[in-house]
Fold this protein.
Amino acid sequence: MRYTFLLYSDPAMAANMGPDDWAREKEVYGAYIGALNEAGVFVDTDWLQPVETATTVSFEDGKPRIQDGPFAATRETLGGTFVINVPDLDAALEWAKKCPAAQYGKVEVRASAMGEG
Amino acid sequence: VARASYGKLLSILSARSGDIMAAEDALADAFRLALESWPIHGVPKNPEGWLVTTAKNRRIDAMRRTARAPMVPIDDHLDIAEPQKEDEEMPDRRLSLLFVCSHPAIDRGIHTPLMLQTVLGFEAADIARSFLISPTAIAQRLVRAKQKIKDAKISFKIPERSDMPARLEAVMEAVYGAYSLGWMNDRDAKDMTGEALYLAELLAGLMPQEAEASGLAALIGFSHSRRNARLIDGVFVALDEQDSGLWDKPAIMRAEAHLKHAASLTKFGRFQLEAAIQSIYAKRLDGTGTDWRAILHLTEGLVKYWPTVGALTNRAAIVAEVFGPEAGLNALDSIAQNSIRAFQPAHATRAHLLVRVGKIADAILSYDKAISLTTELSVRRWLEQRKTALQAQAT
């Protein structure tokens, strides 16, 4: 079963980070990706541009509406995603607990609606 | 200056003002000045006394510089009239620091990193690397905790007798946290259990009248003694499969001494019980085999007072050693299934026991479930090897 982790965090945390901080942060995520890879469950990951750059697409009265900005304004925003392939939710939750973002934000775990793959 | 000194100096400096961050800055300044001065003027007779006096003076200078109005009191707590005398024996205030770091008003999740940083002098980035957590997040949480200790005026006094049991429990939980976190992650695990052992032995030494503190030092000591046997070529090795020749004998003897001291205080507790179980496993060194009945006896005691999922699962594995795998499987079935559905050790134990009763297909299913729940690579490899061997045997 494919599961997607949606990594929510407060962008304010990254505001004062210097190049060294980013390098250390990347090292920790690199280790996490390594662990996922070595366990053979890794599918994909992405690190997203800040929420200010979001464009939201919706339909209103049957017409597409393209809106500059995110769908909902909350303090914590979507910062990245992981897609892993594990047998069930129990296993997905074990990996989500190990995700660095769980330490400072929230990791939302969702099963794929497209079935096995 | 050795590891022991950093925590000692920081605890003295921060206990007076309650401001850990200012004490860290002043101490860093003092170390820098020492590097400039000692090569020229020689190392002072009492280096720690020199560092404390210098750090205090630096703090006073810093506060004078930042004090806007001349009438602002500099610091009520700072004892300017009594500078540290050069030949004075350094008091050990690390115990207060341990209590402050695990104060109930401080987020539990940061107790262990706070101890590692203030008592042992670890950088936030090193703690993050060892525990595989975000360095930026941990640095910010450490700063927030220290800010709160200062702003909320969390006391550096040793807790009163009535508060002591709960407060000591929190200190021990945090020390145990350093050990279990270090153990769980493959990377740098050896180092971190060593640090946890240092903290546990420090606590036991500072509180010799507390049986559980010595029990904890014994428990971590036994586990630490097996650090070189637990991982071979990146694969986890279960306790009963370990080469006891790789165990650290002096570490075992030290753990035995802690346990003996704890027992002499006749104040029963969980860490002592767990350490006593470890002590029986360690007896394998004498070549007499493992006394499973004695281990079961102690485990029953543990389960009676502290029926955690881990203890219950462990009990099932030991029941299997004494009464056979069927009895072990029955013991596993008697645990609330909801509580072990996602508990990896329960599935691994079930798999091992199913193999012993010849239910190979079921064993493979249990191995699959256990493997899917395992995030540590070394343990995953171990389970996968067992499963592969089983499949080869089945065909």
Observations:
- Chain B touches chain A at residues 125, 128-129, 132-138, 140-141, 187, 341-342, 344, 368-369, 372-375, 377, 380 (CB under 8 Å).
- The first strand of chain B starts at residue 231 and ends at 232.
